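Researcher: I'd like a structural prediction for the single chain below. Treat it as a standalone chain; there are no partners to consider.
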Amino acid sequence: MTTKGRIGLIGAPSSAGAYSPGQEDAPAAVRDAGFERDLREAGIEVVDLGDTPRFRWRPDPEHRRAMNVEAVRASALAVADKVAAALKRELMPLVIGGDCTTELGTVLGWRRVHGKAALLYFDPHPDLNTPDAVPDGAFDWMGMAHLLGTPGAHDRLVDLGGPTPALESDDVLVFGYSAARATDAERAAIADRGIRVIEQETVAEDPAAAARTALAWADERTQVLMHLDTDSIDFADLPLAENTDRNVGLTFDVVAQALEVLLPSPQIGAVTITEINPHHGEPDGVTLRTFLDRLVEGLGGR
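Model: Treating it as a single chain, here is the predicted structure.
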Protein backbone atom coordinates (compact mmCIF):
# COMPACT_ATOMS: atom_id res chain seq x y z
CA MET A 1 0.00 0.00 0.00
CA THR A 2 2.96 2.33 0.52
CA THR A 3 3.68 4.72 -2.37
CA LYS A 4 7.21 5.75 -1.46
CA GLY A 5 8.78 8.31 -3.77
CA ARG A 6 6.03 8.39 -6.44
CA ILE A 7 3.54 11.24 -6.31
CA GLY A 8 0.29 11.84 -8.14
CA LEU A 9 -0.18 15.62 -8.18
CA ILE A 10 -3.84 16.69 -8.08
CA GLY A 11 -5.23 20.22 -8.17
CA ALA A 12 -8.55 21.03 -6.49
CA PRO A 13 -9.24 24.65 -7.54
CA SER A 14 -12.38 25.29 -5.51
CA SER A 15 -13.24 27.86 -2.87
CA ALA A 16 -16.88 26.71 -2.71
CA GLY A 17 -16.73 26.12 1.04
CA ALA A 18 -14.70 29.22 1.84
CA TYR A 19 -15.49 32.71 3.09
CA SER A 20 -14.33 34.49 -0.06
CA PRO A 21 -12.51 33.81 -3.33
CA GLY A 22 -8.80 33.04 -3.57
CA GLN A 23 -8.10 29.38 -2.89
CA GLU A 24 -9.38 28.39 -6.32
CA ASP A 25 -6.23 29.98 -7.76
CA ALA A 26 -3.82 27.98 -5.59
CA PRO A 27 -3.21 24.94 -7.84
CA ALA A 28 -2.29 27.13 -10.81
CA ALA A 29 -0.05 29.31 -8.65
CA VAL A 30 1.71 26.25 -7.24
CA ARG A 31 2.37 24.91 -10.72
CA ASP A 32 3.52 28.32 -11.97
CA ALA A 33 5.99 28.46 -9.07
CA GLY A 34 7.77 25.40 -10.49
CA PHE A 35 6.66 22.95 -7.82
CA GLU A 36 6.59 19.92 -10.11
CA ARG A 37 10.03 20.74 -11.49
CA ASP A 38 11.43 21.12 -7.99
CA LEU A 39 9.98 17.78 -6.91
CA ARG A 40 11.61 16.09 -9.89
CA GLU A 41 14.94 17.74 -9.09
CA ALA A 42 14.60 16.32 -5.56
CA GLY A 43 14.47 12.86 -7.11
CA ILE A 44 10.73 12.32 -6.82
CA GLU A 45 8.75 10.79 -9.66
CA VAL A 46 5.71 12.99 -10.28
CA VAL A 47 2.66 12.30 -12.40
CA ASP A 48 0.46 15.36 -12.87
CA LEU A 49 -3.13 14.13 -12.80
CA GLY A 50 -4.55 17.57 -13.56
CA ASP A 51 -7.23 19.62 -11.87
CA THR A 52 -10.80 19.05 -10.85
CA PRO A 53 -13.35 21.61 -12.17
CA ARG A 54 -12.76 25.14 -10.94
CA PHE A 55 -15.30 26.88 -8.69
CA ARG A 56 -14.91 30.44 -7.41
CA TRP A 57 -16.69 31.26 -4.16
CA ARG A 58 -19.88 33.26 -4.37
CA PRO A 59 -22.61 34.00 -1.85
CA ASP A 60 -25.49 31.55 -1.75
CA PRO A 61 -28.51 33.42 -0.33
CA GLU A 62 -30.78 30.42 -0.81
CA HIS A 63 -28.65 28.34 1.58
CA ARG A 64 -27.36 30.85 4.08
CA ARG A 65 -26.16 28.25 6.60
CA ALA A 66 -24.93 25.79 3.96
CA MET A 67 -23.49 27.97 1.22
CA ASN A 68 -22.61 26.34 -2.10
CA VAL A 69 -23.34 22.88 -0.70
CA GLU A 70 -23.84 21.31 -4.11
CA ALA A 71 -20.59 22.80 -5.41
CA VAL A 72 -18.75 21.51 -2.32
CA ARG A 73 -20.22 18.06 -2.95
CA ALA A 74 -19.29 18.10 -6.64
CA SER A 75 -15.73 19.16 -5.85
CA ALA A 76 -15.34 16.42 -3.23
CA LEU A 77 -16.57 13.76 -5.65
CA ALA A 78 -14.21 15.00 -8.37
CA VAL A 79 -11.26 14.91 -5.95
CA ALA A 80 -12.24 11.39 -4.91
CA ASP A 81 -12.12 10.23 -8.54
CA LYS A 82 -8.59 11.55 -9.00
CA VAL A 83 -7.34 10.25 -5.65
CA ALA A 84 -8.67 6.78 -6.42
CA ALA A 85 -7.04 6.91 -9.86
CA ALA A 86 -3.69 7.86 -8.29
CA LEU A 87 -3.85 5.02 -5.78
CA LYS A 88 -4.67 2.47 -8.46
CA ARG A 89 -1.47 3.56 -10.21
CA GLU A 90 0.46 3.18 -6.94
CA LEU A 91 1.03 6.93 -6.68
CA MET A 92 0.83 8.84 -3.42
CA PRO A 93 -1.92 11.45 -3.89
CA LEU A 94 -0.71 14.98 -3.21
CA VAL A 95 -3.80 17.16 -3.42
CA ILE A 96 -3.44 20.93 -3.61
CA GLY A 97 -6.67 22.72 -2.66
CA GLY A 98 -8.84 24.52 -2.50
CA ASP A 99 -10.62 25.00 0.77
CA CYS A 100 -10.63 22.52 3.65
CA THR A 101 -13.58 20.54 2.28
CA THR A 102 -11.12 19.15 -0.27
CA GLU A 103 -10.32 16.57 2.41
CA LEU A 104 -13.75 14.99 2.03
CA GLY A 105 -12.74 13.94 -1.47
CA THR A 106 -9.33 12.62 -0.42
CA VAL A 107 -10.86 10.44 2.30
CA LEU A 108 -13.58 9.19 -0.05
CA GLY A 109 -11.07 8.35 -2.79
CA TRP A 110 -8.86 6.49 -0.33
CA ARG A 111 -11.79 4.48 1.00
CA ARG A 112 -12.81 3.43 -2.50
CA VAL A 113 -9.46 1.74 -3.00
CA HIS A 114 -8.17 0.79 0.44
CA GLY A 115 -11.18 0.81 2.74
CA LYS A 116 -10.77 2.14 6.28
CA ALA A 117 -9.00 5.48 6.63
CA ALA A 118 -7.32 7.39 9.44
CA LEU A 119 -6.55 11.11 9.34
CA LEU A 120 -3.79 13.25 10.81
CA TYR A 121 -5.35 16.71 10.69
CA PHE A 122 -2.70 19.44 10.93
CA ASP A 123 -4.91 22.41 11.70
CA PRO A 124 -5.47 24.66 14.73
CA HIS A 125 -9.20 24.36 14.00
CA PRO A 126 -10.72 20.86 14.21
CA ASP A 127 -13.46 21.86 11.72
CA LEU A 128 -16.14 20.17 13.81
CA ASN A 129 -18.85 22.77 13.27
CA THR A 130 -22.19 22.06 11.63
CA PRO A 131 -24.64 24.37 9.83
CA ASP A 132 -26.85 24.53 12.90
CA ALA A 133 -23.93 25.42 15.20
CA VAL A 134 -22.44 28.41 13.35
CA PRO A 135 -24.27 31.13 11.41
CA ASP A 136 -21.91 31.92 8.51
CA GLY A 137 -22.65 28.93 6.29
CA ALA A 138 -19.01 28.34 5.34
CA PHE A 139 -18.21 24.62 5.08
CA ASP A 140 -14.52 25.50 5.41
CA TRP A 141 -14.65 24.83 9.14
CA MET A 142 -17.19 22.02 9.00
CA GLY A 143 -15.35 19.33 7.03
CA MET A 144 -14.38 17.08 9.93
CA ALA A 145 -17.93 17.16 11.30
CA HIS A 146 -19.16 15.78 8.00
CA LEU A 147 -16.45 13.11 7.80
CA LEU A 148 -17.51 11.95 11.28
CA GLY A 149 -21.23 12.19 10.56
CA THR A 150 -21.80 14.59 13.46
CA PRO A 151 -25.47 15.27 14.31
CA GLY A 152 -26.52 18.42 12.48
CA ALA A 153 -24.15 17.81 9.55
CA HIS A 154 -25.60 18.30 6.07
CA ASP A 155 -26.64 14.96 4.57
CA ARG A 156 -25.38 15.95 1.10
CA LEU A 157 -21.84 15.98 2.46
CA VAL A 158 -22.13 13.05 4.86
CA ASP A 159 -23.45 10.67 2.22
CA LEU A 160 -21.08 10.93 -0.72
CA GLY A 161 -21.64 7.41 -1.95
CA GLY A 162 -19.21 5.57 0.33
CA PRO A 163 -19.56 4.12 3.83
CA THR A 164 -20.91 6.55 6.42
CA PRO A 165 -19.50 7.96 8.52
CA ALA A 166 -16.29 8.17 6.54
CA LEU A 167 -14.18 8.27 9.72
CA GLU A 168 -14.43 7.10 13.30
CA SER A 169 -13.38 9.39 16.14
CA ASP A 170 -10.59 7.03 17.18
CA ASP A 171 -9.00 7.37 13.75
CA VAL A 172 -8.56 11.15 13.90
CA LEU A 173 -5.66 13.10 15.39
CA VAL A 174 -5.81 16.90 15.34
CA PHE A 175 -2.21 18.12 15.23
CA GLY A 176 -1.48 21.69 16.35
CA TYR A 177 -4.96 22.05 17.85
CA SER A 178 -5.77 25.40 19.48
CA ALA A 179 -8.62 25.29 21.98
CA ALA A 180 -8.54 29.09 22.07
CA ARG A 181 -9.26 29.27 18.33
CA ALA A 182 -11.96 26.58 18.38
CA THR A 183 -15.67 27.22 18.80
CA ASP A 184 -17.72 26.07 21.78
CA ALA A 185 -19.26 23.36 19.57
CA GLU A 186 -15.82 22.13 18.52
CA ARG A 187 -14.45 22.01 22.06
CA ALA A 188 -17.52 20.05 23.13
CA ALA A 189 -17.15 17.63 20.23
CA ILE A 190 -13.48 17.02 21.03
CA ALA A 191 -14.37 16.18 24.63
CA ASP A 192 -17.52 14.17 23.90
CA ARG A 193 -15.95 12.06 21.15
CA GLY A 194 -12.58 11.64 22.81
CA ILE A 195 -10.75 12.84 19.72
CA ARG A 196 -6.97 12.77 20.14
CA VAL A 197 -5.21 16.14 19.89
CA ILE A 198 -1.66 17.43 20.06
CA GLU A 199 -1.88 21.00 21.23
CA GLN A 200 -0.47 23.95 19.30
CA GLU A 201 1.70 24.83 22.31
CA THR A 202 3.21 21.33 22.32
CA VAL A 203 4.11 21.62 18.64
CA ALA A 204 5.62 25.07 19.19
CA GLU A 205 7.82 23.80 22.02
CA ASP A 206 9.36 20.91 20.06
CA PRO A 207 7.92 20.38 16.57
CA ALA A 208 10.01 17.31 15.76
CA ALA A 209 9.07 15.56 19.01
CA ALA A 210 5.39 16.40 18.51
CA ALA A 211 5.58 14.99 14.98
CA ARG A 212 7.18 11.79 16.27
CA THR A 213 4.32 11.45 18.76
CA ALA A 214 1.86 11.79 15.87
CA LEU A 215 3.72 9.10 13.92
CA ALA A 216 3.62 6.79 16.92
CA TRP A 217 -0.16 7.19 16.81
CA ALA A 218 -0.05 6.49 13.06
CA ASP A 219 1.97 3.33 13.65
CA GLU A 220 -1.10 1.83 15.35
CA ARG A 221 -3.04 2.20 12.09
CA THR A 222 -2.52 0.64 8.67
CA GLN A 223 -1.83 3.93 6.95
CA VAL A 224 -2.77 7.54 7.57
CA LEU A 225 -3.85 10.45 5.40
CA MET A 226 -2.42 13.85 6.28
CA HIS A 227 -4.28 17.13 5.95
CA LEU A 228 -2.42 20.44 6.23
CA ASP A 229 -4.33 23.68 6.58
CA THR A 230 -1.89 26.50 5.88
CA ASP A 231 -3.55 28.66 8.52
CA SER A 232 -1.52 26.55 10.94
CA ILE A 233 1.14 29.10 9.97
CA ASP A 234 0.71 32.47 11.65
CA PHE A 235 -0.31 34.99 9.00
CA ALA A 236 2.08 37.60 10.40
CA ASP A 237 4.98 35.19 9.86
CA LEU A 238 4.08 33.94 6.37
CA PRO A 239 0.95 35.47 4.81
CA LEU A 240 -0.13 32.45 2.81
CA ALA A 241 -3.50 31.25 4.06
CA GLU A 242 -7.05 32.41 3.51
CA ASN A 243 -7.35 33.00 7.27
CA THR A 244 -5.60 36.25 8.18
CA ASP A 245 -5.38 35.65 11.96
CA ARG A 246 -2.15 37.20 13.24
CA ASN A 247 0.03 36.54 16.27
CA VAL A 248 -1.95 33.46 17.34
CA GLY A 249 -0.43 30.61 15.31
CA LEU A 250 2.78 28.70 14.77
CA THR A 251 5.77 30.19 13.01
CA PHE A 252 6.50 28.91 9.53
CA ASP A 253 9.77 27.39 10.71
CA VAL A 254 7.99 25.36 13.40
CA VAL A 255 5.43 24.05 10.88
CA ALA A 256 8.22 23.22 8.42
CA GLN A 257 10.21 21.35 11.10
CA ALA A 258 7.14 19.22 11.88
CA LEU A 259 6.55 18.54 8.19
CA GLU A 260 10.15 17.42 7.72
CA VAL A 261 9.43 14.60 10.19
CA LEU A 262 5.90 13.79 9.06
CA LEU A 263 6.17 13.86 5.27
CA PRO A 264 8.97 11.28 4.82
CA SER A 265 7.09 8.69 6.86
CA PRO A 266 5.88 5.67 4.89
CA GLN A 267 2.85 5.72 7.19
CA ILE A 268 1.55 8.79 5.32
CA GLY A 269 -0.46 7.47 2.39
CA ALA A 270 -1.85 10.74 0.98
CA VAL A 271 -1.32 14.45 1.61
CA THR A 272 -3.87 17.22 1.15
CA ILE A 273 -2.83 20.87 1.45
CA THR A 274 -5.56 23.47 1.72
CA GLU A 275 -6.30 27.15 2.29
CA ILE A 276 -3.48 28.59 0.18
CA ASN A 277 -4.55 32.02 -1.07
CA PRO A 278 -1.81 33.10 -3.50
CA HIS A 279 -3.16 36.67 -3.54
CA HIS A 280 -2.15 37.20 0.09
CA GLY A 281 1.59 36.82 -0.39
CA GLU A 282 4.15 39.04 -2.07
CA PRO A 283 3.24 39.90 -5.68
CA ASP A 284 6.46 38.33 -6.99
CA GLY A 285 5.41 34.94 -5.57
CA VAL A 286 8.24 34.65 -3.04
CA THR A 287 5.82 33.87 -0.18
CA LEU A 288 4.44 30.80 -1.92
CA ARG A 289 7.87 29.68 -3.10
CA THR A 290 9.20 29.90 0.46
CA PHE A 291 6.49 27.49 1.57
CA LEU A 292 6.96 25.15 -1.39
CA ASP A 293 10.74 24.94 -0.90
CA ARG A 294 10.29 23.47 2.58
CA LEU A 295 7.50 21.21 1.35
CA VAL A 296 9.82 19.78 -1.29
CA GLU A 297 12.47 19.16 1.37
CA GLY A 298 10.02 17.12 3.40
CA LEU A 299 8.67 15.17 0.44
CA GLY A 300 12.19 14.56 -0.79
CA GLY A 301 12.76 12.44 2.29
CA ARG A 302 10.33 9.83 0.95
